[in-house]
Amino acid sequence: MLIRQLQKVLTTPIIQKSRRNQSRLTVIFWYSLSLTFAVGYIIMGLRQALSSKYIVSDDAREYISWIYRYFNPDLFPGDLIADYFQSVTPIGYGIIYKIIAALDIDPILFSKVFPIVLGLITTSYCFVVCMQILPVPMVGFIASLLLNQSLCIHDDLFSATPRDFIYPLFLAFLYYSIRSSEFGILIVFALQCLMYPIIAFVDLLILFLRLFHWQNRQITISDNRKDFILFVAAIMIAGILILPYTIQSSQFGPTITAAVARTMPDYWHGGRVSYFSHNIVSYWFDGRDSGFFALIAPPQLLFGLLLPIILKFQSHFLLTKQVKDEVKLLLQVVIASLIMFFTAHALAFKLHWPSRYTHHTFKMVLALAAAISITLILDAIFQWSRQNGRQILILGTIIILGAGLVLYPSSLKVFPKTPYLEGQVPTLYNFLQKQPQNIVIASTSEEADNIPIFAQRTILVGKEYALPIHTKYYAQFRKRMIDLINAQYTEDINQIKDFIQKYHVTFWLLERSAFLPEYITKNTWLQQYQPAAQQANANLQKAVPVLATLINSCAVFETDNLVLLKTECIKVVTKT
After folding, report:
1. Is 398 exposed, middle or buried, given 0-12, 13-18 or 19+ CB atoms closer than 10 A?
2. Phi, psi of 509 (to 5 degrees)
3. Mean pLDDT, rounded, for 155-159
């Protein structure tokens, strides 16, 4: 009797009209539980984010810094870094923050709170997509639970970048595809083109695959005229919405070629991108930017790989009869993602990193498939235990399964894993904010990465902004970096003055350890800029660089590890 009641609560499909009210309550319960866990995970992540105004997502520094131009158009005048990241920011993402600026809402605060909205939308669409494939409410709960755990293990929800919009929009696309809602599909597709254009290519391929059917081991063309109209309409929308974005970012193009990238340390282990690897398995399988199965966690998602096998043995898993034909959409997602993955490799790096086409979509597919697989297996165990009277076995299985799914995050050292970092020198940001808006700060310190977003002032270079993707941008960035290293470690005061004049540098931010040999030899970022780094190290072995002798006389701001020099003071120095 107990087993029958458990099976009724956990794995019985919502298909009987006579049980409509009870079914509605069951759906509400599991859906509410899904939202509860989602909100709980997000709040856990936001506790750190809201603990200080000088905390921000790591990657948000690239996308949000320039947005302060919406508040004050005079900020970042002639700023190469701000201009570049504004050009590569998807149009829809920029529009959202333009609205935020019009409402006078701090963009940093907004970037911290908005994950709650995205998380709730993601959870909701994940739940209803599952219900469309297998109408068992517990399936929706398991799928959303696994997906939210996965999002919180990596920075896929808290990054405050355009990629945070992938999950709610793509799941919405799947839902409207299952429902055959042409209007819903096109609206969501348009939003994807605006928010994260590369995933729109996966959508297009899915719509293309819908034009064909596999029947009796033969591929036939769909006789549904609406499918063709929908595909053509999507192509037109993509052209209208993605083309302006392509033109917008082309001013810093073209993208670097794979052949050239292989010669650059930036693209190998320890580099800014770390795309290539001497380990061919890692390169194709789990490389962060190059692998098709990168960053797939938690391991429970791998239950999704069992779904095709389970569906082949319907006689052993009776609940498979309730799995609807819409499950084939998951296969279409996998096929479309892999096509784009290999296309991105072939056209490197014109379509961005290949892993972006599988990393996100595979997570969603595996979460949905894993939830369905777990439920089908559990129902089969119910059937078996009823025939064999093994109630203890089924109770133990439910307890272990439930504990494993719900308590898994507690087994991790860090959960949720958020990408937040805290600016360490608020007094520096406050000092720089009081300076004119057209100042330029030169520095090899990683603390410089925080100046644009916390002080809204221009930096000459910064490790976080050293993206070697578009050639016109990175050629300028690399030249600046080499000139900076050469000037910082030279014995010639005239070389320093020429550098200051060339780049209109107002302040020079130094770490007190910057003139120790290990500062260069152990800094993987500086080591990418050769031969400047080697020459700087050689200079340190011979004599004290001029800049090191000016710290006491030209410093206008100091902390335990940082010193800010005013270049007006340096320019009047006459010694050589």
Report:
1. middle
2. -95, 120
3. 83
- pLDDT tens per residue, range 393-430: 778 778 888 888 999 998 888 888 888 999 989 999 99
Tell me: do 219 and 129 sit in the same domain.
Answer: yes
Number of helices and strands (H, E) in the chain? Answer: 26, 9
Going by C-alpha positions, the residue among 106, 112, 113, 98 that lies closest to residue 60 is 112
Strand partners, 563: 510, 558
Q: Are residues 375 and 240 in the same domain?
A: yes
Task: Give DSSP secondary structure letters for 381-434.
Answer: HHHHHHHHT-HHHHHHHHHHHHHHHHHGGGGSSSSS---EEE-S-HHHHHHHHT
pLDDT in tens, 191-248: 999 999 999 999 999 999 998 877 767 777 877 888 899 999 999 999 999 999 888 8
As given in the structure block, the two tokens for residue 123 are: 């959870």
**315 and 199, same structural domain?**
yes
Domain extent, residue 399, equals 2-52+89-253+286-411
pTM passes above 0.90 = yes
Residue 493 DSSP symbol: H
Which tokens in the block code for residue 563? 């010193």
Q: For residues 176 and 295, state if they share a domain.
A: yes
Regarding whether 516 and 557 lie in a shared domain, the answer is yes
Please indicate, yes or no, if residue 224 is contained in any of the structural domains. Answer: yes
Q: How many CB atoms lie within 10 A of CB 139?
A: 29
Nearest to 115 by CA among 33, 184, 50: 50
Number of Cα atoms under 13 Å in the Cβ half of residue 92: 19
Q: Say yes or no: 427 and 397 in one domain.
A: no
The number of distinct structural domains making up the chain is 2
Give the pLDDT mean for 330-348: 95
Average pLDDT over residues 450-462: 96
Q: How many CB atoms lie within 10 A of CB 532?
A: 22
CATH number of the domain encompassing residue 516: 3.40.50
DSSP string, 92-146: HHHHHHHHHHHTT--HHHHHHHHHHHHHHHHHHHHHHHHHHHS--HHHHHHHHHH
219 and 346 assigned to the same domain = yes
In this structure, are residues 363 and 301 in contact, taking their beta carbons and an 8 Å threshold? yes
Q: With contact defined as beta carbons under 8 Å apart, do 2 and 392 qualify?
A: no
pLDDT at residue 505 above 90? Answer: yes
Label the pairing between strands 555-558 and 562-566: antiparallel
Distances from the Cα of 3 to the Cα of 7, 15, 134, 314, 574, angstroms = 6, 20, 21, 21, 90
Residue 220 included in any domain = yes
Strand partners for 219: 214
Q: What angle do CA 134, 139, 145 make, to 5 degrees?
A: 145
Residue 147 binned pLDDT confidence (cut-offs 50, 70, 90) = very high
pLDDT tens digit sequence for 239-283: 999 999 888 888 898 999 999 999 999 999 888 888 999 999 999
- Structural domain contains residue 267: no
Considering the domain boundaries, does residue 259 fall inside one?
no
Per-residue buried b or exposed e for 477-507, using 16+ beta carbons within 10 Å of the residue's own CB? bbebbbbbbbbbbbeebeebbebbeebebbb
Print burial letters for 436-466: b (CB count within 10 Å at least 16), e (below 16).
eeebbbbbbbebbbbbbbbbbbbbbbbbbbb
Q: Phi/psi at 277 (nearest 5 deg)?
A: -150, 145
